Amino acid sequence: MTPTTHPNAWAALADHLRHLGTDVVFGLPGDDMALLGELERSDTTVVLCRDQRNAVFMATGYALAAGRPGVCVIGKGPALTNALTGVLEARSAGAPLILVADGTRLDRLGTGAFQELDQLTAIRPYVKWATRVDHPERLPAALEKAAALAVNGAPGPVYVELAEQVAAEPVTRVAPWRPVRPQRTAPDPDALAATAARIAAAERPLLLVGGGARHRNTGRRIERLAELLGAGLFSTASGRGTVDEDHPLHCGVSGLYTVAPVDALWREADLVIALGSRLEETATFGWPEEMDQLPVIQAVLGEENLAMERPGDHVLGDAGRIVDGWAELLAGHRPAPAWPARVREARAALARRAADRAEEAAKTVTEGAVPVARVLAALDRAVPADRVLVQENGLQDMWSYYFPHWSLGSGGGSVVPSEQTPLGFGAAAAVGVRLAEPAGRPVVAVVGDGAFNLFRGELPTVADSGVAVLYVVLDNGGYGWLQSNLDRVCPDGSRFAFTRPRPTGTEGLAAAHGLGYQRVTDADALPAALADAWRQVAAGTTAVVEVAAALADLPPGMTAAAGDFPERESAQEE
């Protein structure tokens, strides 16, 4: 081809983003506005944020929902350090993210230049790959490698730093931009056959679907494998939304969010097949002690995600290809009918116990607060079933992690924080999810007031971007999880407090930016408030519904907060 010369580095970046098909860019640029000047002439949506961390959260939500790279552009120095929490979350969530940052010019390094920082050293522990471009001829290769690494192998964030002197210099490409698409790695045939043989020998298997299986369940191949094996079907929190939660073998979310009576299935199983899961602590919390000897077959894309603490075997490759390979090798398999029947029985018992738990929770909530179980039930009725639920991970908002108090059904979606659970992720990520999903698909964020308060400064961004998200904010007066932990060690009347009843200030901020707002303290008023809020969102305006919640309204199976994890109720059989 005839060489192509871009007038500057930002023009080259803008052209590469067009090549990638990037339709949204998030960020808070530094003083150099050249990229915005280039994007001004395109139809790319640009979300200009007030805070770099929120910008990365939004780009991560976009990447998780879309299954393609989220792009974020920031300045240098403190702009990068502000973004690090978001990058940590993107790495932990396995989200393909391309972060582009300004950098100090080459001839000023080490001179105490304005906002000078060794940014590569700061960010390398958080990303798959990081590079600094000091010479314009190196920029095309750096952009192409960044895009390839973000989507291939185990997806994750990458970092490209543009030194200040490069930004204004012409960039020449001598070849067309390379195509960038994830290559679906096929599993090794011998490993596939060995693991298939172990699966065939199991009589009571469970199939655990993790975040690595997102966007890999074409044609409901995972549910078909569960049927072939007669396996109980669980998701990790990050894998939720991958499989049909109406499926009769589906029993909810694993680990921290598995409660009686389906927790008994984990004691009775003789094999766990973990598909696209790192088996992180939240996914395995509460597994019975005897499971230390229960074999686990782990199927992951990248070898760095293998967990070797339990006996078993593993196969590396794309989750969809592994499932298809197992299905072919096990085509003649006929499971004994007793185990699938036991799984269906446990699922039915869970539904009955969930109804009892919701009724019990409603009796313990204080006056002026709304039971969260009723919030979820009313939300289910108010918003169409294909909605995507974006969550935080505090106290009352954890209710929605527990199936079937909240069910995604056959068409709903889910985006949750990883095991890092950075406060405010869900509130910000919902903006990215909204921009990744088709225009008519509802996006609902269920968040605690502590998380929402960190995000509220972005409400002008929400208004400016024109996104329409329904925010359901569960207000317990602050940081409920921390208050619950404090109550364990400090007596009544402690001089410390993480929660206090006080106005949130959201109403005035929402009104100032033309967003919907309602506050609900009476359960009977909730259905109408949610219905009205959804009408506003369907018409194109973000709406916030603040719901008063009580600390005593603990999520299912939890008796108290206890450090990082809750105390659990004793196992109950049905």
UniProtKB/TrEMBL annotation:
Gene (name only): ilvB
GO BP field: isoleucine biosynthetic process; L-valine biosynthetic process
Superkingdom, natural source: Bacteria
Gene Ontology CC: one annotated term: acetolactate synthase complex
A GO molecular-function annotation: magnesium ion binding
Pfam families: TPP_enzyme_C, TPP_enzyme_M, TPP_enzyme_N
Protein known as: Acetolactate synthase
Domain Thiamine pyrophosphate enzyme central as annotated: residue spans: 193-322
Residue stretches making up the Thiamine pyrophosphate enzyme TPP-binding domain: 420-547
Annotated source species: Streptomyces angustmyceticus
